[in-house]
Amino acid sequence: MASATVTEGPAPLRRWLRAPKFLLAIPAWAWWVFFFLVPVALVVAASFGSKIEGSAGRVSYDHLNLENYRQALEGGLSGLFVDVLKQGMRTTLIGTFLCVVVAFPIAYLLATKVKRGKGIALALLAVPFFTNFLIRTLAWRIVLAPKGLISNTLLDWGVLSERLNVLDTRLGVQIGVVYNYLPLMIFPLFVALDRLDPVLREASKDLFASRLKTFFQITLPLAAPGIVAGVVLVFVPLAGDYITANVLGGAKGNMPGNLVATQFISAQNPALGAAIAVILIVSILAVLGLAFLAAWALKKAGKIDSLLGTVSGLVLVFFVGMLVLSFSWINVVYLVGALGAIGGAVWLGSVVAPRLSNGMLWLWGAAVLVFLYLPIAFIVGHSFNRNKALEVWSGFSTKWYGEMWDNTLLTGSMKSSLGAAAVAALISVILGTLAGIALARRPGRWTVGFMAVLLLVLTTPEIVDATGMQLEFVSLGGIFREGLAPLWIGQSIFSAAVVTLIVRARMQGMDESLEQAANDLYATPLTAFRQITLPLIAPAVMAGGLLAFTFALDNVIISDFVKAPGTNTFPTYVLGQVKTVRKPDIAAMATLLLGVTLLALIAAAAILRRSGDDSSKVAATLTGGA
């Protein structure tokens, strides 16, 4: 048999080619251990160390002590860090809550009411999410500018008595975080609701249950996994986000991440920054732990009596709201009003005619799309601004699309971004493909530890890994502090995990009989992989690579921490311009970058759709999980 000739060769080689496939996961495992687990451990260790004077970014571990924690917590509940931590957690909790409230109706609309064009609707929601994080945040400075179009229009209409005063305030940060993280709530909710069997709702109606009762007893409980996933996906990165606060909040909108970044990047005191990062992580875990404990208690109460569960939930939300907002009678009024408005909207949607309630959902969906696309429209529009100041419109001009090429710092940063993203995507594809195959074809006890690390990579606040990698790279020196190598490594950590999940999902959906037939014909694993497995998983690999490229291109926090001296990516260049007079050449370059991102996103979605994925699977993939 011709195919049997592939077995010719030295016996050791044949044994190696037929080795257990969990060995394929070793490269990814080693990569994450060395560039994720070790850095996180270094953050914890450095928090007990001390700054080495005159040595930027280095920490001494000779005399471990609690001095950094004492400094961080100095002043107790009224101290600087504790005050910023409280404000940051308040912003994070409110932002997460608002994301749930805004996302649920549109996710429900997409999952239950949209019959045709669901893929197009999901694509419309995905585009803002994949627009460069820093650019879409910066765009809000144009939207909310005191002398901007919206402010002037509202003044002319008599809606406002004075110009907008939202920028460089906590409210500006709150708007920004809801905008930036809303898609991360919409997609998991859509996936959960889309997988809900319509027969269950129909059965509830056949038993004469009202629409309100069906919603609370059928729809909402079955959507709980999506809510939990969305809350984790939003809350964890939001708590460590300092970019949004840096751009929109000014001194009044500081988040805990701002203090960490200041100590690592500006003050050159990584030991104190590490202590602040550890306290932040402990705070995040404490809040999530209490939330899951409360959810468990409410579930138990609901099983005893549905009314008891509902009342307990409202009481819990009220007290948590008072804790977050700080007690005052005006805040009581605000909170009761907000809960009443939400409850009233749900009740109204359940009692009015179905056609009217559907109309309300469509109107809400349209409003969310306007909210998501408003900053993008402004940043693209202002790329044609004649004025030298980005935020102030003075007429149409295309000059910045020509002049931006003369800005060597801008073009150099874009070249670095594209080069770093391309290599990071290649690394992610290689590691993720091998690991995904191993997880799908050789599951076992080893997968428990591997999946634990993978989930940690996906859920750990980026600022923690970023600070750890900076500590590690500064200590190692050499190639880790030169050129684009630090960016290749840093930007591939998260992306490799995404590719792993995508390839694993594709492999699990494949018929193993084809690979078994190749083995029966004495084909080596290498030949079977090249001729059978690789062609079948190629769509997942290509889509994963494109997503990895877009994630790497968008990366801000890790790039800001680990970039080598003298190196800039486009996001870090823009971040450096935030406190200066921003020119429209940034918007022009951002518009071109948006085009590149859109092409990659369209290609990834098209590949997944042509390979057989439905809208639900595509949505899960686009948010980093398969």
What would your notes on this structure say?
Helix 16 packs across helix 17 and helix 24 (525-554) runs antiparallel to helix 27. Strand 1 and strand 2 form a beta hairpin. This protein has two domains: 1-10 and 23-38 and 411-626, MetI-like fold (Orthogonal Bundle), CATH 1.10.3720.10; 66-371, MetI-like fold, CATH 1.10.3720.10. It contains 28 helices and two strands. The model is unreliable at 1-14 (pLDDT under 50). The protein has helices at 11-17, 26-46, 67-72, 80-112, 118-130, 133-143, 149-156, 170-194, 198-206, 211-222, 224-240, 243-248, 256-266, 270-304, 306-325, 329-351, 354-381, 399-403, 408-441, 446-459, 462-476, 485-508, 513-520, 525-554, 557-562, 570-577, 584-610, 615-622; strands at 50-51, 59-60. With 626 residues, it is mainly alpha-helical. It has a two-stranded antiparallel sheet. Helices cover 74% and strands 1% of the residues.
Could you give a short description of this structure?
With about 625 residues, the protein is mainly α. It is about 75% helix and about 0% strand.
For the record, the CATH architecture of the largest domain stands as: Orthogonal Bundle
User: Which band does the percent of strand residues land in?
Assistant: under 5%
Number of strands: 2
Mean pLDDT: 81
CATH superfamily of the largest domain: MetI-like
Which percent range fits the helix content? Answer: over 70%
Q: What is the string of helix and strand elements? A: HHEEHHHHHHHHHHHHHHHHHHHHHHHHHH
Number of domains: 2
The helix count comes to: 28
Structural class: mainly alpha
How would you sum up the major sheet?
Answer: 2 strands, antiparallel
* Cross-sheet strand order for the largest sheet: 1-2
- Report the end-to-end length measured between terminal Cα atoms: 39 Å
Shape designation = globular
